Predict the structure.
Amino acid sequence: MNENFSAPLPERPLLGLLTTGGTIAGAGNTPAQTIDYQAGVWDATDLLAAVPGLTAMARFRSEAVAAIDSKDITEALWRKLAARAQSLLDDPAVTGVLITHGTDTLEETAYFLSLTLTGEKPVILTGAMRPATALSADGPANLWNAARLALSPKARGRGVLVTMNDEIFTAATVTKRASYRRNAFTAERGGPAGFIAGETIRFFHPAAPGALSFALPKAPLPPVVILYGYAGDDGALVRAALHTGAKGIVYAGPGMGSLPVPVEKELLAARAKGVAVVRASRLTDGLILSPGSPAPQNADAAASPKEEAAFIASGSLSPVKARILLQCALAQETPLAALPQIFCQASSLS
Ligand code: SIN
């Protein structure tokens, strides 16, 4: 007699599944429809049913946090998502948490959660480039990979991760680079954190210790705007940002976060009024450094000494992520003088 037949089946691990909408839950009128479909139609039951074998691998405790196109994500939804995810993570019965999300702002939600969730358990975001009803739907495979990653001990202690198209990304570096292709995601200023191939889950580097963590007060995050630099920028939008009450400005300048002379003048005036100013870049590769930072060999031209005193360098963060970090830091009433070090830490430059 095979003893296995009489042994009780091992209990399947429990995963949290928070759905927010997006293309992964999108529905079109025909299997050929891959654009102009409606995002956020399928619920968690539909999503799980579309992945053969998924519910044999794990049990799921699911909740719809939203059913939106992710262009419409708000700070209120981020906070709700963070609260629901943290409550699942705090439950000893839960092994990890999956979050399905539209791809358009997935990187921003992932980064916000990475700064605000605590604990060692995996939190995995995924989405899809093709709606659930399409012949070429990529959501089922992405959800399968996300579940496998959430169940893997290798994913513990790595903060919030994203998996798309068999690749694994950190929240800090992941970005969407293509509007339509299924391999739409990449890692800015570095490569993916790892990959999934069949049964194999491989990370390229050990988990990095010392992640930043913010306990946010209930008040709304301070307003921070992103200004996109361009040839001939006369700085008028810096003045407009101050007019709207911005407490922070992220300037996505050309090259290594360079500032056209009129813009630099306006930003210095903003800084003198107590507004936090971050120099970021329109580029998707290379670090944005302050003079005196540990520079890579091929660093571009250094910023002026005036900037060094006044502005924060975004390091490895894209403008959208620099904005979120600045908002979280300002929400905790971090003194302006301490902000450069926080950005260094976020970029692992210190
Ligand atoms: C969205 O971001 O909600 C729509 C696009 C997508 O998920 O790919």
Summary: The longest strand covers residues 59-68. The pocket of succinic acid is lined by residues 21-23, 39, 69-70, 102-104, 127, 129 (CB under 6 Å). Residues 1-5, 294-303 have pLDDT under 50 and may be disordered.
